[in-house]
UniProtKB/TrEMBL annotation:
Protein's name according to its UniProt entry: Uncharacterized protein
């Protein structure tokens, strides 16, 4: 607890000597370095914030006559004698129920909350928040880690701290409080650490299989995030992985179901913050490993633009604020790092979110950025020539740096003896002919890059690679061989190099048509799974919104797909639509695929319309 005023008075007498130490309470809030220190477009210089704070404190301790400060017109000429050095007028934890944790490691985890001062304090007064983390839900005994950190309007009152010195593979409970009033607390949040890298595969997660819940495409105006609730209440998921499109920049029309989005099409930092804040009024995923797809910036984002914005005169015209692509992207990335408990993996690389989690010897969870990092041009609706360049060797989806890192990471994972290589990324990997069309915004538009990945897996005999995908708003389960490789046998799976589990959207409308009924969707799936160009594809389902879980033990990976019955209102009504297994060492789906029957969608093996779950 801060002894109010005391600390800052003594700090003043030491002056600049303690400048580094003095910023400690700002620096502990990782939102200020969002995403990283040293680049003014991307972060805050906490020394300047501290100087601002100290200048304010000085005003409290010197005679204020003749104090001329245009920056604080409200306080000009006012009596400063009773003004607080830190805000003590009360805190509103506006998103307290939705306090979040993310990017767990073996000994640390990121904790997130938002602390808004009640009333309208002077801008230079920071809000101080304390946190404590315990090994029991009643918060008894001594906390394993605790501390205080500042937040301020500069970071939209968000607070992101790293709780450290934790034990591997352990459950924890944490709480935030107002430093100036211990009675103002958030709800108690639960979190966990992961197993340390050298834990034998059969001892990871206390010897129980580890379950990931995998989500993508949560468009607020399209429905309620029931998938997050079902994963939390009705599965044994240990870690939530969101593959991107966690928010959408667009407006749409959700008023009919009470899901009208605030603001306008997102362009400025205010816009992105407001949208993230609104999304977090619904159920949020916990113990989150999060990722960005295009809509965290804008539709069809690539390295130099989006469908409706770029850095030309016409490309700035989309926005009432006149924001062009680069400013828009910086605003999106900055707000994302404020609002999402994600680590900044490389402080010299402003856009990097690709990163790897070594979870014992059971798996490496490798998260790629196939969208915003260094992607060559995609389909922008007005340019139609992507098919003609999709094979170019010099085109990359990931960018050279991420590509070489990824190949090394796969090889290192195998050589360190991890059983599974789970690759979380945004877009559908397998070749997918959808009634005469390839989605060239997915890997089908970047075929040379896809071939380089498959070549690396094949040439280095990398086993047990499982690719997770989102973005497409439909379910697709595939063996993975080189596209059009006739030595692959779709009946037995012989010749397959890896497996892909692509999941549908949490809410975003089906790519088969908004609100398409199961039977109508199955008719489309039937055409797609029997198309000879889609020989790898084993299951297609396009009606239901939902998510899937992936349960891993040293011998088997099991994917269970969940279908939500109704996303027009908040509920936990869902059913398992299909279950797939992959045996360690097999590099293909177990036959018969999905045990020979599914509750929704169409299997290649028995392409007849089965009774659906409704
Ligand atoms: C606290 O924040 C919530 C959510 O924004 C709001 O509904 C509520 O009115 C706020 N309470 C106070 C006292 O400002
Ligand atoms: C920029 O985007 C606009 C659409 O907003 C498009 O009409 C224009 O061709 C784009 N310019 C370039 C150079 O890509
Ligand atoms: C990329 O490769 C294509 C096909 O080989 C070639 O036509 C094009 O000029 C190359 N582009 C660059 C920038 O090197
Ligand atoms: C596979 O063959 C089809 C039909 O010839 C072609 O359109 C497609 O581009 C091929 N895929 C790859 C990755 O070469
Ligand atoms: C879904 O719920 C809404 C009410 O929120 C209802 O009007 C609609 O009929 C339901 N849909 C189905 C398929 O049950
Ligand atoms: C999920 O759990 C909730 C609460 O425990 C329960 O009410 C609901 O019926 C469950 N849903 C399913 C599909 O089992």
């Amino acid at each position: 607890m801060i002894a109010k005023n005391m600390r800052f008075v003594s700090l003043l007498t030491l002056g600049c000597v303690v400048a580094v130490q003095a910023t400690k309470l700002f620096d502990r809030n990782l939102a200020y370095s969002s995403p990283f220190v040293g680049y003014p477009q991307f972060s805050h210089d906490t020394r300047k914030l501290q100087a601002r704070h100290v200048a304010y404190v000085k005003r409290q301790t010197v005679d204020n006559t003749g104090f001329d400060d245009e920056h604080y017109p409200t306080f000009y000429g006012a009596d400063f004698s009773n003004a607080p050095f830190i805000w003590s007028g009360g805190i509103n934890f506006t998103h307290s129920v939705a306090s979040m944790q993310g990017d767990p490691f073996d000994t640390s985890v990121l904790l997130w909350t938002r602390a808004v001062p009640i009333g309208t304090p002077d801008q230079s007064v920071p809000v101080c928040v304390s946190f404590k983390i315990f090994d029991n839900p009643n918060l008894n005994g001594k906390p394993l880690d605790s501390g205080e950190a500042f937040t301020s309007y500069d970071v939209d009152w968000t607070l992101k701290v790293e709780a450290t010195n934790l034990k591997a593979d352990t459950k924890y409970w944490y709480q935030f409080a107002d430093c100036t009033n211990a009675k103002t607390v958030t709800t108690i949040g639960a979190t966990r650490t992961l197993s340390s890298p050298n834990t034998p595969a059969n001892l990871v997660n206390g010897g129980k299989p580890l379950t990931l819940a995998v989500f993508s495409c949560s468009r607020f105006q399209d429905g309620y995030f029931n998938a997050y609730g079902v994963a939390a209440h009705n599965t044994s998921a240990d870690v939530f992985v969101h593959l991107g499109d966690y928010i959408y920049e667009s407006l749409g029309n959700g008023a009919a179901i009470g899901r009208k989005v605030l603001g306008r099409e997102l362009a400025t930092i205010f816009d992105y913050r407001q949208r993230l804040g609104q999304y977090r009024t619904d159920v949020s995923p916990t113990s989150l490993i999060n990722h960005r797809d295009d809509h965290e910036v804008a539709d069809q984002a690539w390295k130099a633009g989006t469908a409706d914005s770029n850095d030309t005169m016409v490309g700035c015209a989309f926005s009432p604020s006149g924001a062009c692509f680069t400013d828009r992207k910086l605003a999106a990335v900055r707000a994302y790092h404020e609002w999402i408990p994600i680590r900044q993996v490389d402080v010299d690389d402003k856009l990097r979110i690709w990163r790897n989690f070594q979870i014992g010897k059971l798996l490496d969870l490798t998260m790629l950025d196939t969208r915003n990092y260094d992607r060559d041009i995609t389909d922008l609706y007005y340019n139609t020539d992507i098919n003609s360049i999709a094979d170019f060797q010099n085109r990359s989806l990931m960018g050279a740096e991420q590509e070489s890192w990824f190949y090394n990471t796969l090889s290192q994972s195998q050589s360190r003896g991890a059983v599974w290589r789970i690759v979380g990324q945004q877009i559908v990997f397998t070749q997918l002919d959808e009634q005469g069309e390839f989605d060239v915004d997915a890997w089908d538009g970047y075929r040379a890059n896809r071939n380089r990945i498959l070549d690396h897996i094949q040439n280095n005999r990398i086993s047990n690679t499982v690719i997770l995908s989102g973005d497409s708003h439909a379910n697709w389960v595939s063996d993975l061989a080189h596209p059009n490789d006739t030595s692959y046998d779709p009946v037995t799976g012989k010749g397959s190099l890896a497996v892909e589990f692509a999941g549908t959207a949490v809410t975003s409308s089906s790519s088969f048509g908004a609100h398409i009924a199961p039977l109508a969707a199955d008719a489309i799936s039937q055409i797609i799974v029997t198309d000879p160009l889609n020989s790898d594809l084993q299951w297609s389902e396009g009606s239901y919104r939902g998510f899937f879980t992936l349960t891993l033990d040293p011998h088997t990976a099991t994917a269970t797909y969940y279908a939500m019955r109704n996303i027009s209102n908040p509920n936990l009504d869902a059913f398992a639509s299909a279950v797939f297994t992959v045996k360690a060492g097999a590099n293909k789906l177990t036959r018969p695929v999905a045990g020979g029957s599914v509750a929704a969608g169409i299997l290649k093996a028995s392409p007849s319309v089965l009774p659906t779950g409704v």
